[in-house]
User: Which sequence fits this backbone?
């Protein structure tokens, strides 16, 4: 890396950073400036270069060109341990804790203090751990407690404590709230506020722009491996930030594709299932996008799994009629858990796309890899999936492109009813718009879409009708024109009919609204 004339008013300066992996240019000359005691949001679509840039900062990758300075001095870490010794720590989205070890052992892992005989000196390490935990103010985190006994939110804070013991000057948080409840998110934000007050610089990566507006001071946007813009939070409108991210105007975040409702394809009456599903009755039509709202634990996912045949029906009935009734397989499920059960991340795009429907790929008794590649290329082109080839590992793709392949698997199977559980979870804004447009196109092709989502603006923006599930009971479906965000939240928290609770206060409504948007 080139030398740099350090600016002592900046905590971190990255200038013209470049990084290529073979023929792929991941970073094409990125600039990033972070001040002391600042929360700086790093924003961009999946594949924009955020993770690569942070891996260069943390020493996991070596830049091909460019320069970095830390508190005005040249900074060029040889590896992550070297970066930590300079005060740069990174908390990855997938936490790097050993659950079978204690909080103290995790915090000092790799840097243990030992006595003369090589035995770990817990007594010597404990004061630093206690001091770090005192700054976090979390009652459940104690030095001797096993990490396996902690909640996800508490584990996130153990990672922060590890950075504090290392006297971090720059702390990188990559999607820190993606698995947190709203309560844990608020606790994390309180910790970030204290770190800011103590002069620690926090680089905050998140797809939740509402969250960025709440916690960050300034922002930098990356697009296609280059700096697309930067500014002060509050001085730049959210629409403008989104335009920087995707490189075009997003006048229609929820693009409207004309489609008409046809005949009933699925009729459910009093369906009950295991665990949370108590009763669900509805009719789903061809050419319709039917939305289901509800709080976490209301039974929405359980309903989808019963309809897909992944959970037993314990009462009531549901029938596929018309063309759906004659199909060998009427439904296809898009799981909310893309990594664990939606995709096989160690397999290729083509294998994931075609695995559930191999008949068209057979040549006699044998599977034709030529046909598989041709089918994969067809869907990759139609859904504008960014990839190197049909043989590329799907684990190497961004979240948005992985989700498109998950959609393509259902389309390749030709199912008339699509059960979509949180279809845009974990994807960037640009990919969301493309997925919304795809959903409209599928409805225009007379597909029936049954959509579960925790993001109310999404349901209001793309659905034709919406029903709310409350404590395992699915309420009546209403045309989207008759629905409001406040009304859906009221029904989600109170229910309807004889068992409805008292009206929700304004304060409670704001709390539930934050939970949805988180």
Assistant:
């Amino acid at each position: 890396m080139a030398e740099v004339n350090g600016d002592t008013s900046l905590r971190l300066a990255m200038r013209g950073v470049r990084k290529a992996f073979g023929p792929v240019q991941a970073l094409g000359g990125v600039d990033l400036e972070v001040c002391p005691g600042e929360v700086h949001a790093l924003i961009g679509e999946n594949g924009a270069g955020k993770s690569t840039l942070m891996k260069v900062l943390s020493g996991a990758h070596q830049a091909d060109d460019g320069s970095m300075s830390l508190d005005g001095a040249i900074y060029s870490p040889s590896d992550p341990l070297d970066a930590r010794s300079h005060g740069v720590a990174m908390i990855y989205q997938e936490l790097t804790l050993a659950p079978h070890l204690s909080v103290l052992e995790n915090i000092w892992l790799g840097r243990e203090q030992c006595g003369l005989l090589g035995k770990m000196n817990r007594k010597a390490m404990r004061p630093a751990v206690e001091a770090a935990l005192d700054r976090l103010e979390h009652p459940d985190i104690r030095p001797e407690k096993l990490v396996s006994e902690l909640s996800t939110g508490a584990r996130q804070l153990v990672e922060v404590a590890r950075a504090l013991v290392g006297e971090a000057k720059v702390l990188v948080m990559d999607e820190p709230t993606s698995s947190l409840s709203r309560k844990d998110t608020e606790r994390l934000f309180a910790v970030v506020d204290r770190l800011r007050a103590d002069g620690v610089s926090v680089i905050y990566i998140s797809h939740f722009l509402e969250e960025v507006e709440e916690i960050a001071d300034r922002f930098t946007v990356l697009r296609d491996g280059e700096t697309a813009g930067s500014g002060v939070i509050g001085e730049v409108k959210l629409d403008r930030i989104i335009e920087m991210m995707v490189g075009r105007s997003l006048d229609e975040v929820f693009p409207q594709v004309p489609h008409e409702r046809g005949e009933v394809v699925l009729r459910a009456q009093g369906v009950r299932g295991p665990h949370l599903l108590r009763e669900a009755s509805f009719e789903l039509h061809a050419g319709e996008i039917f939305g289901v709202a509800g709080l976490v634990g209301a039974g929405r996912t359980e309903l989808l799994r019963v309809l897909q045949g992944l959970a037993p029906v314990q009462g009531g009935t549901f029938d596929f009629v018309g063309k759906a009734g004659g199909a060998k397989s009427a439904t296809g499920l898009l799981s909310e858990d893309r990594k664990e059960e939606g995709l096989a991340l160690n397999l290729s795009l083509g294998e994931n796309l075609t695995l559930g429907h191999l008949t068209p790929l057979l040549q006699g008794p044998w599977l034709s890899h030529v046909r598989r590649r041709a089918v994969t290329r067809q869907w990759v082109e139609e859904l504008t999936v960014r990839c190197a080839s049909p043989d590329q590992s799907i684990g190497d793709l961004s979240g948005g492109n992985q989700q498109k392949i998950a959609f393509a698997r259902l389309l390749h199977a030709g199912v008339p009813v699509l059960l979509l559980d949180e279809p845009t979870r974990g994807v960037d804004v640009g990919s969301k718009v493309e997925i919304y447009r795809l959903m409209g196109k599928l409805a225009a092709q007379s597909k029936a879409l049954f959509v579960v989502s925790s993001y109310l603006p999404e349901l209001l923006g793309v659905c034709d009708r919406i029903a709310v599930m409350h404590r395992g009971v699915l309420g009546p479906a209403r045309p989207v024109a008759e629905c409001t965000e406040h009304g859906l939240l009221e029904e989600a928290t109170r229910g309807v009919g004889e068992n409805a609770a008292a009206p929700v206060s304004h304060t409670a409504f704001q709390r539930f609204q934050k939970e949805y948007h988180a």
Residues 346-414 form one domain. The longest strand covers residues 24-34. Confidence is low (pLDDT under 50) at residues 1-6, 498-518. The CA atoms of residues 297 and 350 lie 34 Å apart.
